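step: validate -> pass
step: tokenize input -> pass
step: predict -> running
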Amino acid sequence: MTIENRINLVVDDPKREAIETNLTGLKTELSTLLIALSPKQKKDLPKLGEHMMDFVERSYEGVGKNPTLAPSYIKMDEVKLDMEAWKLLHSIARDLEQLVSMLNDTATLCGSEAYSSMLSFYNYIKQASKDGVPGAKPLYDGLKHYFPGTGNSKDKTKDNEE
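step: predict -> pass
step: emit ->
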């Protein structure tokens, strides 16, 4: 059986350092701007999504054209700042979400290929151990605890008798 190798990812030291430097820079720049909300705080807030940003912008324009209709407690300069900040942060978040999705997909594929190959090795030494191939049993015994409860009870009884 052949295991398809769909990725060979090598990150050399200069590339790794550049990634870490850029991530550190991004964290540094954003950490002075961002806040953290508790789950309850998030739940209690009304949410603005892309589909409602048009409403916010049209309402803002409406206030600009009809300032006497707006309640005095609404500070339009603060609304403008919030709108612009939301647009910027939402754009950054979308880019980061796409990047995180690709990072997770790539890590999943790398992990899957490594796991599939080593699972094939494990199954091979499991059979080799049963067949009495020299050196296979210690390897198998060192790895079988990762799969508790597998195998039939006859095998478990036989393992306990040895």
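step: describe -> The helical segments are 13-31, 39-44, 50-65, 76-130, 136-143, 153-161.
step: cleanup -> pass
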